[in-house]
Amino acid sequence: MKEISFDEFYKLYQNEKLSLVDVREVEEFETLHLEGAQNLPLSQLADIYDQLDKDQLHYVICKSGMRSARACQFLEEHGYKAINVQGGMTAFENL
Fold this sequence. Notes:
Blueprint: E1 2-4, H1 6-15, E2 19-22, H2 26-31, E3 38-39, H3 45-48, E4 57-61, H4 66-77, E5 81-85, H5 88-93
Parallel strand pairs: 1-5, 2-3, 2-4, 4-5
Domain Rhodanese: 14-94
InterPro entries: GlpE_sulfurtransferase, Rhodanese-like_dom, Rhodanese-like_dom_sf
Keywords: Nucleotidyltransferase, Transferase
């Protein structure tokens, strides 16, 4: 599984249009999220992952990087390109 530090990701995020998938639950997402992020909760991912473009690279984020790592593994097993954002939204809150 590919991973990127939050700092590296954030530099890219500020300068490019990225596909960002937030796998936190809806309530967490509604409280705080990065602009442009698509909320696909890990608990529902198996049912809704096909909403994602299979040809695009997806950056996957959660609160700390654990759920997003599981989501990346799942997506890769289904033929998607995904990168886990280490540190997640906790790292964003600590900017």
